[in-house]
Amino acid sequence: MTRFGRIRAHMVRGWPASAAALISIALCASIGTAPAWATTPPARSATAVAGMPSFRLADIPMKDGVVLKADVLTPAPGTPGADSRGRRPLIVQPASWGQNDLEYVAQGRKLAADGYVVVTYTVRGFWLSGGRIDVGGPADVADISSVIDWALVHTEADPRRVGMLGLSLGAGMSLLGAAFDPRVKAVAALSAWGDLVDSLYSGQTRHLQAAELLNTLQVPTGRPGTEYTRTLADLYADRDMPDVVNWARKRSPGTYVEGINAHGTAVLLSNAWSDSIFNSSQITDFYQKLTVPKRLIMRPGDHATQELTGFLGVDNETWASAREWFDQQLKGGGTSGAPGAPVELHVRPGGGEEDHPSWKAVSSRTLALRLGRADAFGTGALDGPADTGWHTSITGGIDSGADAGTTELSGLLDQTAALPPAVEVPLLPRFAAAVWQSAPYPSVQRVRGVVRLHTTITSSASQGTVFAYLYDVNALGVGKLITHAPQSWSGRAPGQAFPLDIALFATAYDLPTGHRLALVLDTKDPAYGGSTPLGSDVSFSSPQADQSRLVLPLR
User: Fold this and answer.
1) How confident is the model over 424-482, as pLDDT tens digits?
2) Sign of the C-alpha dihedral computed for residues 350, 354, 358 and 361 taken in this order
């Protein structure tokens, strides 16, 4: 096949699954020694036309014989960025879940035009790359080092200036690459995961809708490995969960954060508040563990929705932030002349920007709101007078209508139209949902960070799940979802009270003047695999010695 034919065939096969560019899951493990082909003379780049970066396809052999499909973008001659020996900074880009190496061509061309050598590859187990989906096995991280080895031999790449850029799967792999390969000096991780356990099983609750979407997206282009297949089956069936947790922990960059810190790799994290696959709290927690040069950007949206227009080459703030990060870390200076704030928040709704020196500085105080007894309409006071001795019971296993929303769609609607999942709070069935509501606030309430609930539960079953939802309620009773989280329990004596704490996913939200806050608790959500038996009794109470409360981080 001619070179043009190869490119055309590669592109025809690559683009139909572009919807999969929205997703990814994880990877991790070990690095190996330099491969045998390291002494091969470097291949010449294709000739650049009219000052444009050159493009060529490549086959990159791995240590175990698997061949990964890749493409290489090389700056045109005379493009600034080369050192005295003609070597240039290198950006390695693993493709995202279900995608091939052509996914990043538009953004890769921009990087190459700025003087970077860009090598993008299709992760093993997808498309025309060999092997099977490893989702965190040793082969995946070893592949990162092998690709870097290949690039240093076959391109003008400078071994002192190596960066990694990726979206979703590619983002997680980039962080893992930084943990295991000290040559990686800078990472831009977009829609990344830091903790795969928390992404799949936060609050000891299975995130089934997200897992099902990920698995569906790999079906047309992927070849699953046995470990992936077994783990996913266990997650669906709610069996051998300690093994599932162990599998995910081994694939979490947070497990190896000491490696990133020891290597001094500069890390940019850019995620969305309503990411339905890799929740906001797991990435803010990971950010706080980093002691290297670091930056966190949080915007409204869902998984990979902030980055989507960048695939078409449209100007995009997220991709621009990544290029600026590499200019600062690999070239010694960006176009702005100074790095951005360590923490950049785009507040919901509306997206107003705030800059902070650290995550801890995001909120300046906390406010504890007491949960009171229900009135004649079944609604308890939120921050009413001190009130104990009450209990509110609901029937378990019934969806009240208060839900986290639909994976990918709900966060996208919040990003583009300020339309998160919504409910009519007065109409929620009180037999399936416990509801508390505040009085209207006379001024804007700026919620920043992690909202925490503490309550006491008594259940007629030994296991169960509670879903907590915090709503912004207008004068008509319409509540827009601010944040939520699940929390499960097991091994409890039926009929015996026990304390329950729920940390809702991190957010930045301005509650408008005149609006109320509403807290809704129920026991079923279509996005999750809860464990509350249908028809069981779940009761919430507030003992005198341990009052139920909702703690808001405010600014």
Assistant:
1) 999 999 999 999 999 999 999 999 999 999 999 999 999 999 999 999 999 999 999 99
2) negative
